[in-house]
Amino acid sequence: MDLSIVIPAHNEEARIGPTLRAYAAAFHADYGDRWELVVALNGCTDETQRVVDEAAAECPAIRWTVEDSVLGKGAAVRAGLHEAAGDRVAFVDADNMVGPDETRKLLDALDEHDIAVGWRRHDLALEPQSRPWARRVVSGVSPLWSRRFLGLGVHDPQCGAKALRREALDALLPLLTETGWALDLELLLAARRLGLRVAEAPVAWRHEPEGSKVRLTQATLEVFRATWRLRFRRDWGGR
Questions:
Q1: What is the spatial distance between Cα 23 and Cα 98, in angstroms, rounded to a whole number?
Q2: What is the strand order of the sheet 162-165 is part of?
Q3: CA atoms within 13 A on the CB side of 101
Q4: Phi, psi at residue 119, to the nearest 5°?
Q5: The domain spanning residue 174 has which CATH number?
Q6: 28: buried, middle or exposed (CB in 10 Å: 19+, 13-18, 0-12)?
Protein backbone atom coordinates (compact mmCIF):
# COMPACT_ATOMS: atom_id res chain seq x y z
CA MET A 1 0.00 0.00 0.00
CA ASP A 2 1.61 3.25 -1.15
CA LEU A 3 -0.62 5.83 0.54
CA SER A 4 -3.09 6.15 3.40
CA ILE A 5 -5.13 9.26 4.11
CA VAL A 6 -6.87 9.46 7.49
CA ILE A 7 -9.88 11.69 8.17
CA PRO A 8 -11.37 11.94 11.70
CA ALA A 9 -15.10 12.56 11.71
CA HIS A 10 -17.57 13.43 14.46
CA ASN A 11 -21.07 14.27 13.13
CA GLU A 12 -19.81 15.47 9.75
CA GLU A 13 -22.72 14.41 7.54
CA ALA A 14 -23.00 17.89 6.00
CA ARG A 15 -19.31 18.33 5.17
CA ILE A 16 -17.54 15.02 4.67
CA GLY A 17 -19.20 13.93 1.42
CA PRO A 18 -17.59 16.63 -0.77
CA THR A 19 -14.25 16.02 0.99
CA LEU A 20 -14.32 12.30 0.24
CA ARG A 21 -15.27 12.91 -3.39
CA ALA A 22 -12.50 15.47 -3.81
CA TYR A 23 -9.85 13.17 -2.37
CA ALA A 24 -11.12 10.15 -4.31
CA ALA A 25 -11.02 12.10 -7.58
CA ALA A 26 -7.52 13.41 -6.88
CA PHE A 27 -5.80 10.21 -5.77
CA HIS A 28 -7.64 7.22 -7.24
CA ALA A 29 -6.48 7.85 -10.80
CA ASP A 30 -2.84 7.98 -9.67
CA TYR A 31 -2.81 5.17 -7.12
CA GLY A 32 -5.57 2.76 -8.18
CA ASP A 33 -5.75 -0.02 -5.59
CA ARG A 34 -2.47 1.08 -3.96
CA TRP A 35 -4.05 3.69 -1.71
CA GLU A 36 -6.75 3.95 0.95
CA LEU A 37 -8.80 6.63 2.65
CA VAL A 38 -9.58 5.72 6.27
CA VAL A 39 -12.42 7.61 7.96
CA ALA A 40 -12.21 7.40 11.77
CA LEU A 41 -15.86 7.70 12.82
CA ASN A 42 -15.87 9.13 16.32
CA GLY A 43 -19.10 8.86 18.32
CA CYS A 44 -21.29 9.95 15.40
CA THR A 45 -24.99 10.32 16.13
CA ASP A 46 -26.01 11.71 12.74
CA GLU A 47 -25.83 10.28 9.21
CA THR A 48 -22.06 10.53 8.78
CA GLN A 49 -21.62 6.77 8.37
CA ARG A 50 -24.33 6.65 5.70
CA VAL A 51 -22.54 9.39 3.76
CA VAL A 52 -19.25 7.48 4.07
CA ASP A 53 -20.98 4.26 2.95
CA GLU A 54 -22.27 5.99 -0.16
CA ALA A 55 -18.83 7.38 -0.98
CA ALA A 56 -17.24 3.96 -0.44
CA ALA A 57 -19.70 2.43 -2.92
CA GLU A 58 -18.27 4.78 -5.54
CA CYS A 59 -14.61 4.51 -4.48
CA PRO A 60 -13.38 1.17 -3.08
CA ALA A 61 -10.34 2.85 -1.53
CA ILE A 62 -12.58 4.36 1.17
CA ARG A 63 -13.02 2.41 4.40
CA TRP A 64 -13.72 3.33 7.99
CA THR A 65 -13.29 2.55 11.66
CA VAL A 66 -16.10 3.06 14.16
CA GLU A 67 -15.95 4.17 17.79
CA ASP A 68 -19.35 4.43 19.43
CA SER A 69 -18.27 6.88 22.14
CA VAL A 70 -16.83 10.35 21.54
CA LEU A 71 -13.08 9.98 21.97
CA GLY A 72 -11.89 13.46 21.02
CA LYS A 73 -10.26 14.51 17.78
CA GLY A 74 -6.76 13.40 18.78
CA ALA A 75 -7.93 9.93 19.77
CA ALA A 76 -9.85 9.61 16.51
CA VAL A 77 -6.76 10.57 14.52
CA ARG A 78 -4.68 8.03 16.44
CA ALA A 79 -7.30 5.32 15.77
CA GLY A 80 -7.11 6.07 12.07
CA LEU A 81 -3.31 6.11 12.08
CA HIS A 82 -3.23 2.71 13.75
CA GLU A 83 -5.40 1.37 10.90
CA ALA A 84 -3.40 3.01 8.12
CA ALA A 85 -1.30 0.61 6.05
CA GLY A 86 0.40 2.96 3.59
CA ASP A 87 4.10 3.63 3.17
CA ARG A 88 3.16 7.30 3.39
CA VAL A 89 0.34 8.46 5.64
CA ALA A 90 -1.43 11.81 5.75
CA PHE A 91 -4.22 13.03 7.98
CA VAL A 92 -6.56 15.89 7.12
CA ASP A 93 -9.81 17.39 8.43
CA ALA A 94 -13.28 16.37 7.29
CA ASP A 95 -14.17 19.90 6.15
CA ASN A 96 -11.64 19.91 3.28
CA MET A 97 -9.94 22.96 4.78
CA VAL A 98 -6.74 21.74 3.14
CA GLY A 99 -7.68 20.19 -0.19
CA PRO A 100 -6.08 17.24 -2.00
CA ASP A 101 -3.78 19.33 -4.20
CA GLU A 102 -2.33 20.95 -1.07
CA THR A 103 -1.99 17.56 0.63
CA ARG A 104 0.13 16.48 -2.34
CA LYS A 105 2.63 19.16 -1.30
CA LEU A 106 2.97 17.48 2.10
CA LEU A 107 3.42 14.06 0.52
CA ASP A 108 6.05 15.43 -1.89
CA ALA A 109 7.96 16.90 1.06
CA LEU A 110 8.41 13.37 2.40
CA ASP A 111 10.94 12.71 -0.34
CA GLU A 112 13.51 14.42 1.87
CA HIS A 113 11.82 14.59 5.29
CA ASP A 114 10.18 12.24 7.78
CA ILE A 115 7.19 14.49 8.57
CA ALA A 116 5.53 17.34 6.70
CA VAL A 117 3.33 19.94 8.38
CA GLY A 118 0.88 22.28 6.65
CA TRP A 119 1.35 26.02 7.14
CA ARG A 120 -1.90 27.96 6.68
CA ARG A 121 -0.34 31.25 5.70
CA HIS A 122 -2.71 34.23 5.77
CA ASP A 123 -1.88 35.22 2.21
CA LEU A 124 -2.95 31.76 0.99
CA ALA A 125 -6.39 31.82 2.65
CA LEU A 126 -9.34 31.07 0.38
CA GLU A 127 -12.02 32.71 2.49
CA PRO A 128 -15.68 32.25 1.57
CA GLN A 129 -16.43 34.99 4.07
CA SER A 130 -14.58 37.17 6.54
CA ARG A 131 -13.80 35.42 9.81
CA PRO A 132 -14.93 37.00 13.10
CA TRP A 133 -12.22 39.07 14.75
CA ALA A 134 -12.12 36.79 17.80
CA ARG A 135 -11.39 33.76 15.65
CA ARG A 136 -8.69 35.66 13.76
CA VAL A 137 -7.01 36.68 17.02
CA VAL A 138 -7.12 33.18 18.49
CA SER A 139 -5.90 31.60 15.27
CA GLY A 140 -2.86 33.87 15.44
CA VAL A 141 -2.12 33.78 19.15
CA SER A 142 -2.62 30.07 19.80
CA PRO A 143 0.04 28.82 17.33
CA LEU A 144 2.45 31.53 18.50
CA TRP A 145 1.98 30.50 22.14
CA SER A 146 2.35 26.80 21.34
CA ARG A 147 5.51 27.08 19.29
CA ARG A 148 7.21 29.57 21.63
CA PHE A 149 6.24 27.86 24.90
CA LEU A 150 7.11 24.38 23.64
CA GLY A 151 9.98 25.40 21.37
CA LEU A 152 8.39 23.99 18.24
CA GLY A 153 10.15 24.96 15.05
CA VAL A 154 7.14 25.33 12.74
CA HIS A 155 4.80 28.25 12.12
CA ASP A 156 1.47 26.39 12.32
CA PRO A 157 1.89 23.39 14.66
CA GLN A 158 -1.87 22.80 14.98
CA CYS A 159 -2.66 22.67 11.28
CA GLY A 160 -4.90 19.64 10.79
CA ALA A 161 -2.97 18.50 7.70
CA LYS A 162 0.20 16.50 8.25
CA ALA A 163 2.01 13.66 6.46
CA LEU A 164 4.46 11.05 7.70
CA ARG A 165 6.70 8.34 6.35
CA ARG A 166 5.80 4.85 7.56
CA GLU A 167 8.99 4.49 9.60
CA ALA A 168 8.35 7.80 11.35
CA LEU A 169 4.73 6.90 12.10
CA ASP A 170 5.71 3.53 13.55
CA ALA A 171 8.24 5.22 15.84
CA LEU A 172 5.82 7.95 16.93
CA LEU A 173 2.59 6.05 17.56
CA PRO A 174 3.69 4.39 20.84
CA LEU A 175 4.58 7.87 22.19
CA LEU A 176 1.24 9.54 21.45
CA THR A 177 -1.35 9.71 24.24
CA GLU A 178 -3.27 12.98 23.73
CA THR A 179 -6.96 12.56 22.95
CA GLY A 180 -7.89 16.15 22.05
CA TRP A 181 -6.66 19.08 19.99
CA ALA A 182 -3.14 18.85 21.44
CA LEU A 183 -2.23 15.66 19.56
CA ASP A 184 -0.54 17.79 16.87
CA LEU A 185 1.70 19.40 19.47
CA GLU A 186 2.54 16.08 21.11
CA LEU A 187 3.44 14.59 17.73
CA LEU A 188 5.88 17.39 16.95
CA LEU A 189 7.49 17.22 20.38
CA ALA A 190 7.93 13.46 20.02
CA ALA A 191 9.37 13.92 16.52
CA ARG A 192 11.96 16.34 17.88
CA ARG A 193 12.85 13.92 20.67
CA LEU A 194 13.43 11.18 18.09
CA GLY A 195 15.47 13.45 15.84
CA LEU A 196 13.07 13.17 12.90
CA ARG A 197 13.32 15.61 10.01
CA VAL A 198 10.30 17.92 9.89
CA ALA A 199 9.34 20.09 6.91
CA GLU A 200 6.58 22.65 6.67
CA ALA A 201 4.75 23.40 3.45
CA PRO A 202 2.67 26.55 2.87
CA VAL A 203 -0.82 25.43 1.83
CA ALA A 204 -3.87 27.18 0.46
CA TRP A 205 -6.74 26.71 2.88
CA ARG A 206 -10.38 27.56 3.37
CA HIS A 207 -12.20 28.11 6.65
CA GLU A 208 -15.74 26.72 6.52
CA PRO A 209 -17.62 27.98 9.60
CA GLU A 210 -20.80 26.06 8.78
CA GLY A 211 -20.79 22.85 10.82
CA SER A 212 -17.51 23.58 12.59
CA LYS A 213 -16.95 21.57 15.80
CA VAL A 214 -14.39 24.06 17.12
CA ARG A 215 -15.61 26.09 20.10
CA LEU A 216 -13.12 28.89 20.56
CA THR A 217 -13.15 29.17 24.34
CA GLN A 218 -13.11 25.42 24.94
CA ALA A 219 -10.43 24.73 22.34
CA THR A 220 -8.21 27.59 23.54
CA LEU A 221 -8.38 26.47 27.17
CA GLU A 222 -7.69 22.89 26.16
CA VAL A 223 -4.61 23.87 24.18
CA PHE A 224 -3.37 26.15 26.99
CA ARG A 225 -3.69 23.35 29.56
CA ALA A 226 -2.13 20.85 27.18
CA THR A 227 0.93 22.99 26.50
CA TRP A 228 1.70 23.08 30.21
CA ARG A 229 1.13 19.31 30.46
CA LEU A 230 3.34 18.61 27.46
CA ARG A 231 6.07 20.92 28.70
CA PHE A 232 6.09 19.12 32.04
CA ARG A 233 6.54 15.82 30.23
CA ARG A 234 9.31 17.28 28.09
CA ASP A 235 11.23 18.84 30.99
CA TRP A 236 10.62 16.26 33.71
CA GLY A 237 9.81 13.05 31.93
CA GLY A 238 6.26 12.97 33.37
CA ARG A 239 3.39 11.07 31.76
A1: 11
A2: 62-67, 35-42, 3-9, 88-91, 162-165, 115-119, 198-202
A3: 3
A4: -125, 105
A5: 3.90.550.10
A6: middle
Q: Give pLDDT, residue 228.
A: 79
Average pLDDT over residues 180-184: 91
Q: CA-CA distances (angstroms) from residue 148 to 129, 142, 221, 237?
A: 30, 10, 17, 20
| The one-letter amino acid at 178 | E
Buried b (16+ CB within 10 A) or exposed e, 51-73: bbeebbeeeebbebbeeeeebbb
* Amino acid at position 162, single letter: K
Q: Which among 234, 230, 168 is positioned nearest to 199, based on CA atoms?
A: 168
- Whole-number mean pLDDT of the chain? 89
Q: Which residues constitute the domain of residue 81?
A: 3-236
Distance CA 69, CA 26 (A): 32
Mean pLDDT of 36-65: 97
Instruction: Say which amino acid occupies 21.
Output: R
Separation of alpha carbons 44 and 68, rounded Å: 7
The string of DSSP letters for 29-45 reads HHHTTSEEEEEEEES--
pLDDT at 152 over 50: yes
Number of domains in the chain: 1
Residues 183, 164: Cα–Cα separation, whole Å: 14
* The pLDDT value given to residue 137: 44
The answer to whether the beta carbons of residues 70 and 10 sit under 8 Å apart is yes
- 3-state SS, residue 147: helix
